[in-house]
Amino acid sequence: MSSMNIELPDSLLKQVREMAEKEGVPLEQFIASALAEKMAAWKTVEYLKERASRGARTKFEAAMSRVADVASEEFDRLP
């Protein structure tokens, strides 16, 4: 495991400390978890962009044309 010193605005550090305490986890664990969550979000965006770049609108439209045009069931409708 590595360690590092970072500078944070006092207001942000206060919020992070409060949230870590509320969640019942050590400050370091809370920060590591928050960083891991943010990295996962960024990687997901990159992955989706890469996948989208390999797609073709014509193939999508061909696949959609094979889907029956029927109303969705009651439980599956948006309000």
* Largest β-sheet summary: none
**What is the tally of beta strands?**
0
Structural class: mainly alpha
Query: Strand-residue fraction?
Result: under 5%
Q: For the terminal residues, how far apart are their CA atoms?
A: 48 Å
Poorly predicted parts = none
Number of helices: 3
Structure report:
By secondary structure, this protein is an all-alpha fold. It has a domain of 29 residues. It has 3 helices and no strands. Helix 1 crosses helix 2. The longest helix is centred in the middle third of the chain and has 27 residues. The chain is elongated, with a radius of gyration of 22 Å. 0% of the residues are buried.
Give the SSE layout.
Layout: H1 10-23, H2 27-53, H3 57-65
What is this entry, summarized?
With about 80 residues, this protein is mostly helical. It has three helices and no strands.
Which keywords apply here?
79 residues, mainly alpha, 3 helices, 63% helix
